[in-house]
Structure formats: C-alpha cells, structure tokens
Design brief:
Transposase_21, Transpos_assoc, two-stranded antiparallel sheet, Transposase-associated domain-containing protein, 332 residues, 36% helix
Length: 332
C-alpha cells in the first residue's frame, strides 16, 4: 500500500506543518518526520479535505457543489433531462433537434423518447420520480444488491401487479431495461478470451476456435457436447465498457468539460505535490510530447488492475480481475 499526502509550505525554515493526530497542524517538522508520524499515528480525525495545503478556494467550491448535489437521491426531472442531453451532445435547455443538422432519424427518435420519459411523472402527482429516473434507480439497486436477472424480473412483475398505473410503459424485464442502458450509452461488450489469458477472440481472431498461443480450445466441453460445437459457451469472457463513448461524454457535459481542463487552468502551481500534474513524470511527458501537451483538453489516463492471473497458476479460483482507466485531467 502506498501512502500519499500533500504538505503545506510554511515559514518554519523549510519545515512543514504536520497533519497527524498528535501535532494537529500546529507543529513544524521535517517531511520525513511527518511521513513517520502519519504512518504510525494517522491523520487528524475528520481531516478528509486537504484545506490547509493551498486548496482553500477549490475546497470551498467543492463544498458548495456538494451541497447542491445529493448522491443516490433524485432531485426531479432536470437531472434526467441533463443526462439525455449529455448523451446526445445537445445543449442544455434544448428539447428540439435541428432537422437540418444531419441527425439520423433513429437517433432523433431515441432522443425524443428519452426526453418524454424524463419529463413524464411515474404516476399522476408523483414529483420525486420520472419514468426514466425510476427505472435507472431500479437498475442501480440491482447492481448494489447483486440481484440476479431472474429476481429483477420477478420484482418488476410484482411492481407491475401492485402499481399498474405507475409501471405503464416501463420495461417489463431486465432485457428491456438493458436496452435502455444501451440507448444511454451505458452498456457493455462481451469478448471471448483464452482461459489462460493469452489473447482475446477479437478483431482478426474473432472467428478462431482455439488460442494461437497455447492451443487451448475456446469453448467449454460437457458430456452432451464433447466437441464443444453445439452451445459454444466460452471458457472465459472479457466484459468491456467501450472507452471512446465515455471519453466523449466527459466533454458533452458542460460541468465536467471544464473540470477536464482543471489541471492546467485552475490547479495551484506552487511546487507542492497535490496532483499527478505536479509530478516530474507529468512534466517529463510534456517535454517529450509538446504537441500533445499544448492542448489541455487532451486526456491523460492511468491504468489500474486489481491483480491478474496470466498463466492460471494462482491458488485462488476467483477469475474476476477488474482493470480500470482513470482520467488524470480531473481535480482530486
């Protein structure tokens, strides 16, 4: 585990204010002493926001934003309309498409359908949920509760029987709800993989039936299907969330688009380490790739993996290994 923290410069002859429990930001120590304090003692209780390291203005801005946004709680129709506008790249407050803009008819139909669902109350007099926000909330609960598709379908059917007026025109199964997520560009792709993690059956290798590296067969064998050609169940699957649409959505939202430039336009530049943009590695990359660096909108990504099992020789039988890309442009 790595311990990362930021320091504030002070007038203590090159020393810093230590944010550990004992010192309480009131004692000047060397960086190594502060590092040892934090490893042994820990941060001051409640010191969750680094407000004493030159980020006070950003902290106040973050606090004001957090007061206006409640995670996991719908605040009405506007949130869903903003979501739909961000997906289609249409300016906020515009519910009419430009017919001369070359937008495909199918895309226009999807836009208007989603806008209608985001504006329509779940039932007469309901102000907390629209049709769209309710089904998204149900899908959110499915993910948090690790609910199977079968149980989700049973829950939707129960709600449909109990509240027929509210469930009108809503998806009747997880399959239909999943298509809604795809229309919001929140879906995923499944790519067959070699069971030994040698390669993916993707691109030019999409039609292969065995791995060209280890010759392991692509499909699962069973008593009823020893040749593996009937059901064609893959031995391992990669669940892929397409990268390009998600990067595009970062710039479709006016709020997040400005934050993607934060590292260049609003970051405090006083020599302290608070963000990857302050690191020598970032500056070295800028020096080696000046054309990329001169446009602050260019996206810098970090890759993180929670372990991987390349040769399938680990004792763990667990086979789910998440790999995450993190955009470094955004503020902490």
């Amino acid at each position: 585990m790595f311990l990362n923290f930021a320091f504030s410069r002070s007038s203590c002859d090159g020393k810093i204010l230590c944010p550990c429990k004992d010192c309480g930001m009131g004692v000047c120590v060397t960086k190594m002493e502060a590092y040892n304090h934090l490893k042994v003692i820990g941060f001051i209780k409640g010191y969750n926001n680094w407000i004493a390291h030159g980020e006070l203005s950003n902290y106040n801005e973050a606090i004001s934003n957090s007061e206006n946004t409640s995670i996991g709680v719908s605040n009405g129709t506007n949130d869903m309309q903003d979501l739909v506008h961000d997906v289609f790249g249409i300016p906020q407050g515009t519910n009419e498409l430009n017919r001369e803009g070359g937008i495909p008819v199918s895309e226009a139909e999807k836009f208007y359908k989603l806008i209608d669902d985001s504006q329509q109350d779940l039932y007469s007099g309901c102000k907390n949920f629209s049709k769209l926000s309710f089904i998204i909330r149900l899908l959110h609960l499915k993910c948090l509760g690790k609910m199977s598709n079968k149980i989700f379908n049973m829950l939707v059917e129960l709600l449909r029987e109990a509240f027929p007026e509210a469930m009108t025109n809503l998806p009747s199964s997880y399959y239909e709800a999943e298509k809604l997520m795809n229309s919001l560009e929140l879906g995923y792709e499944k790519i067959d993989a070699c069971p030994n993690d040698c390669s993916l059956y993707w691109g030019s290798a999409e039609k292969r039936t065995s791995c060209e590296t280890c010759n392991e067969l692509r499909w699962v064998a069973s008593e009823n299907d020893p040749t593996r050609e009937k059901r064609k169940i893959p031995q391992k699957v990669l669940w892929h969330f397409p990268l390009k649409p998600r990067l595009q959505r970062l710039f479709m939202s006016s709020k997040i688009a400005s934050q993607m430039r934060w590292h260049e336009e609003k970051r405090t530049k006083d020599g302290c380490m608070r963000h990857p943009a302050d690191s020598p590695a970032w500056q070295t990359f800028d020096h080696l790739h000046p054309e990329f660096a001169k446009d602050c909108r260019n996206v810098r990504l970090g890759l993180a993996s929670d372990g991987f099992n390349p040769f399938n020789n680990m004792s763990s039988t667990h086979s789910t290994w998440p790999i995450v890309l993190i955009p470094y442009n955004l503020p902490p």
